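Minimal example, chain plus beta-D-glucopyranose.
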Amino acid sequence: MDDRQKIGNLPIEKKADLLTGSAFWQSAECAEIGMDAVTLSDGPHGLRVQDKMPNHLGMGTSCPSTCFPTSAAMACSWDTELGEEIGKYLGAEAAYMGVAMVLGPGLNIKRSPKCGRNFEYFSEDPYLSGKFAAAYVRGIQANGTASCIKHFAVNSRERARMVYDCRVDEAALRETYLTGFEIAVKEGKPAAVMTAYNKVNGVYCNSNKHLVSDILRGEWGFDGLVVSDWGGTFDKVSSVKAGVDLEMPRCKFSKDEVIAAVKGGGLDEKLVDDAVARQLAFSHAAQKVKSEDVDWIAHSRFARRCAENSLVLLKNEGGVLPLKKGERVALIGDFARRPRYQGAGSSLVNPTFVDSIFGEMQKSELSLTGFARGFERKGGESKKLRSQAVKLAKNADVLVVCLGLPEGMELESCDRRHIELPRNQLDLLSALRPLGKKIVVVLSCGGVVDMSWDENCDALIHAYLSGQSGGGAVVKALSGEINPSGRLAETFPLREEDVPCHEIYNKYPYKMDYAEGIYVGYKYYNALGVPVKYPFGYGLSYTTFCYSDAALGSGGAYVTVSNTGSRGGAAVVQMYIKAPRPDLEHSPAELKGFKKVFLEAGQSVRVFIPFDEYSFRFWDKSKGWVEGGDYTVFLGENSRDFFFEGTVNRGKAIEGEGKKLSYEQYFNSHISPVEPKKSHKKGGLEATLMTEIYDLKYCKGFVARLFAWIAGLYSRSKDELLSNSMTHLPIRFILLFMKYDSIQVQGFIDACNGHFFRGVRKILFKK
Ligand code: BGC
């Protein structure tokens, strides 16, 4: 009997139960068909294997593992081979720890710098994100471990993440939010894809047939496992219909929904069988993973190599860096001694070891005169710490000032309220500047901050959140042992108000209009000529490069890169292509290829960047993917500084509808009517599984109002993580974590709707 027949022979009661995990971190198991449970674990830059207190928010302990640089940092390396290598290290640790599937990488688009999880994602650009994600996947899966890319799709805000609806048009959906996933699926071949919590155009991603069935499985040919985010199944039957295979973590009541739907003719049993078959195939593949011992020191060393390649030198006036031998260096700033090297939430790793800039500098040949904290990490004025720093600075030639965002400002489930660094850090910098010393700022955070303060420093390194060995990498860059070669994977605007979605990002809790459409990040700033602080793709080096003999061939672009300075270093050649869009006044030039090359001083190399299936296509609202007409191809050092421009013809131009839209017209045409206010009357709301905890206050039963009151307490609590995660939640989510079965769930709903005794009977006695 083949697998399919075995599955077909199982009773629906059994099969329905296989569409959810067997535990918090384990997939389903079924001895009758030879399906073993396999362990799934976060995450994107290191393993979070929990032995006790399982949860999806990074709370409590986990087993030690290597904390590699975050994806936000790694993308700055523009080195996908390194991305593949990091994947291999993750795969090796996973296999060693008995994890069959790594829940990562995450590749959502950084639409706004305020998104609390931006540190977990690669870029504002789908091409760069997709190439990196594909590389990670290839690496993770090299030893047979499975990789689960996430969060599919259009998940770009943390606030109210389980209830908001992304209103996005098909062109922006395809070009901006799905292309990265498409590249990752086609080039990386991940074993699994995780659906996002949010809705897209009114339908939860987990139940979204258009995303899962039509596009992912249908158009891209994905035949692997589709998994829910943890607690991210909101309507079980429509989730199965959409093509989702596995609900995580274990849900005790969803099987009854499936059984009832199959028996009542509302769900085709074949879809249940398909989902079980895909799980069975996954479980068989998981048995083949080979586990070997892990050399933790070598892994930590590799994490440092990754960090070294990701540091972005943003400013270096007067060649302050690298520091000169004998210069007296004062080290200032809390982050130098207590590093920030990762973000918080489900990606939180318990590192095997953590270095610091302070510790590494003490071991180096730099002449360190001392260390001063300079400011309170959590904010607030501390004149004492500032004056200690000023005192220390007076006896130094160079000040290395380590600034950054405190832990609470970059975490899952919360967005940043603004993009400024804490005031006390900026005050410290202003107090140091008049001393007339050379100032080098090292920045530790997972993304974009306002940088209007950078006139108060001579040199600036953005270290991002660079993993457990990031401190050593920074010291090597300061001393010149390595030459920084990172390039920004996102734009640093001049002001927060310049971000294209600034006004609409946080306007409503329940609805987000993606009115800027395809104009995300550099595509907006460059197409509209908006000045920025540091452009996408930007980064300096301690050496200089010259580009010559650039040319276009039928298959791609060529250029000769020469290192014209006196030390080795890496250049990143970037190819941008502007399509002749018939309906837009401003057609953005988009990243379509890149190549990082290391060159010794005086060395030259001929670089070739091929065109591919993504180079020329754009989405036409009536014809789908199209290409045609004259395209402009740019080669540059970043998204603004081009050294070459040429034209490629791709046949007859695509015809539009006549009028080309200005950006303003385009933006306004994507704003949907204002979100209707919820107007529930007290006692007038009938609770269902989809009712938000917040809204329970409108239900009849006092149980509901009690819950709402408790949620209200949380919403006022100082712990943003808790308040955000507790308030905007459909009650199905809470009941899942209460491990209720379907009778108890019904009991809870009854109690919320005013049938207290009936509800309590069901909850307590299950009848
Ligand atoms: C996150 C996922 C994560 C899962 C399991 C969720 O809260 O959104 O990225 O993989 O938890 O920890």
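The radius of gyration is 27 Å. The CA atoms of residues 301 and 469 lie 7 Å apart.
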